[in-house]
Recover the amino acids of this structure.
């Protein structure tokens, strides 16, 4: 039986007063995914939502040892910078797998990482504030393009999303 995998996308700059609420909502979504049979949890390891997601999966591994945390890093030097910090180094050590998309930084490397995560996931959890630009909205568009289940956690400004073309009607 093939592993069911979930990935996260979200903002790096979550307002301080909303971090606890975001962590609570992420934990709820991850626990739901576990109850739905998911065992693979992919993160791009960016600051903010990605690392909160990783922290929660590591905590839940104590009760659910079958859970696999998978780091998907854009390029090798990102690994070096994560290993220099005690906290992120410990999170990386908890990963069952570390995937590096390419050797060196290139302008489109983060989009490649996000596309890889969506293509290799069944469910996408998005911590999203309604911005019309940036990696999170592009990843949400990938989720629609590849017809993946999308679970959204609204945060911050949460602009009127009816104005945003998330790619459902693109030609």
């Amino acid at each position: 039986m093939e592993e069911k995998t979930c990935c996260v996308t979200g903002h790096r700059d979550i307002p301080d007063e909303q971090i606890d609420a975001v962590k609570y909502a992420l934990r709820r979504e991850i626990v739901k995914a576990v109850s739905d049979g998911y065992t693979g949890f992919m993160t791009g390891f960016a600051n903010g939502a990605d690392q909160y997601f990783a922290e929660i999966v590591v905590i839940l591994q104590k009760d659910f040892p079958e859970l696999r945390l998978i780091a998907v890093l854009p390029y090798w030097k990102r690994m070096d910078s994560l290993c220099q910090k005690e906290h992120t180094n410990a999170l990386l050590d908890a990963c069952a797998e570390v995937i590096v998309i390419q050797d060196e930084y290139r302008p489109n490397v983060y989009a490649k990482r996000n596309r890889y995560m969506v293509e290799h996931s069944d469910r996408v959890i998005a911590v999203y504030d309604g911005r019309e630009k940036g990696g999170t909205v592009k990843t949400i568009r990938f989720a629609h393009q590849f017809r993946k289940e999308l679970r959204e956690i609204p945060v911050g400004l949460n602009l009127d999303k009816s104005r945003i073309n998330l790619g459902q009607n693109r030609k």
Q: What stands out?
A: Strands lie at 4-10, 38-43, 68-75, 97-102, 123-128, 149-154. The CA atoms of residues 34 and 117 lie 18 Å apart. Residues 19-35 form the longest helix (17 residues).
